[in-house]
Design goal:
Layout lengths: L9 H9 L14 E7 L7 H9 L2 E7 L2 H11 L5 E2 L3 H9 L34 E13 L22 E4 L2 H11 L9 H14 L3 E5 L3 H7 L4 E5 H10 L3 E4 L7 E6 L8 H11 L2 H11 L6 H6 L2 H4 L8 H5 L9 H15 L1
Parallel strand pairs: 1-2, 1-3, 5-6
Antiparallel strand pairs: 4-7, 4-8, 4-9
Length: about 350
């Protein structure tokens, strides 16, 4: 989903730049930096230059592969970052563990452009700790030159016919969640027997899995090294530009509907700068650039209005209500279940 997928004349981009509402707050220490920690392949890094020109604040940027990896870094090393972009269930966990700062929305005027349907979510019901960044679904990406039959189910990931051609998520919540959903269970079950059954299924699948991946899936599916893998709908749209033989299925058993949102870790050194960055990310200029670059679904009303109708009407990016009703969002789980996930994931991967 690159530049060709949206129409927004340069003059309007300039206007959006002027009206973005980012005044660049500076921190108590006077440092003109903001340290951002985000998923890999999940932003248009060229916007950093625009932000720095507007505010004088330099962006230092690092990436992580999963919510759990990001959580581990912050839990063990403290707040070395000013902005993080976790998923819904991880935000809930971090709020519960007092790991996030409350936001000063006076410094985030572009928050007003967020779709009201995404406000007061279960993971942050008071809307004090997070600002939506992108949302989407998870499905199966597959090569139609290899998989010729209709694909409707998670069963494809467990089909021995494609031994050695299958990729699997390399994080516990997504991988175990897929197995749970295939077995007819909730993503958010607290029944340890159900979780163990799901891991047993993954253990049996392990013999036909080529590798467990995160962003390595781009190269493997794009080059044809592998033919099947579960991943995010937005990433499928990017992959399909490079390899038009790829297709996407949202399985009939249901799938994950997620929201990733911008937050500030507790004790962040440059909080006002972080709030300026978050507001900039909610500007039409930055929102369009990010949508075009990464293919995910925007929470910003002005950005969706500015997208080409072919994009805003794409059912993969913006599923209808019936499809969304079949999806389920991850929720934060009790600590004993999180610990059980860790032990079961270790059992699978050992």
């Amino acid at each position: 989903m690159k530049k060709s997928l949206a129409c927004f004349p340069a003059v309007l981009l300039l206007l959006a730049l002027m009206l973005s509402g980012c005044s660049g707050g500076g921190s108590a220490s006077g440092d003109k930096v903001v340290n951002v920690y985000n998923w890999g392949v999940y932003i248009d890094e060229s916007i950093f230059e625009s932000f720095e020109k507007q505010t004088g604040i330099k962006v230092n940027y690092d990436t992580y592969e999963s919510n759990e990896a990001m959580y581990g870094v912050l839990k063990n090393d403290g707040a070395s970052y000013d902005v993080i972009i976790p998923s819904d269930y991880m935000i809930s966990r971090m709020i519960q563990e007092d790991m996030l700062e409350k936001l000063d929305f006076d410094n985030i005027p572009n928050f007003s452009d967020i779709d009201p349907a995404l406000l007061h979510p279960d993971y942050d019901p008071t809307n004090e700790y997070s600002v939506p960044y992108m949302w989407g679904t998870v499905g199966i990406i597959y090569n139609t030159g290899v998989v010729t039959e209709p694909v409707t189910s998670w069963a494809l990931l467990f089909d021995e016919t494609y031994s050695g051609q299958i990729l699997m998520f390399n994080n516990s919540r997504d991988a175990i969640g897929i197995a749970l959903k295939y077995l007819g269970c909730s993503y958010n079950t607290t029944d340890k027997a159900e979780i163990s059954r799901a891991v047993d299924l993954l253990a049996a699948q392990k013999e036909i899995v080529q590798s467990y991946v995160m962003d390595e899936i781009f190269e493997k599916l794009g080059s044809g090294e592998a033919a099947i893998g579960p991943y995010y709908a937005g990433d499928y749209l990017i992959m399909a530009e490079e390899n038009p033989d790829l297709a996407f299925c949202l399985p009939e058993e249901g799938s994950n509907l997620f929201v990733d949102a911008m937050c500030i870790p507790k004790g962040a050194e440059h909080k006002a700068n972080a709030e300026a960055f978050i507001s900039f990310m909610c500007s039409t200029e930055a929102g369009l650039a990010n949508c075009e670059e990464i293919g995910y679904s925007t929470p910003l009303l002005s950005v969706k209005d500015a997208l080409d109708p072919e994009v805003s009407g794409n059912p993969i990016s913006y599923p209808d209500e019936a499809v969304l009703a079949s999806c389920e969002s991850y929720k934060n789980l009790p600590q004993d279940i999180l610990d059980f996930y860790d032990s079961e994931w270790l059992r699978l991967k050992s």
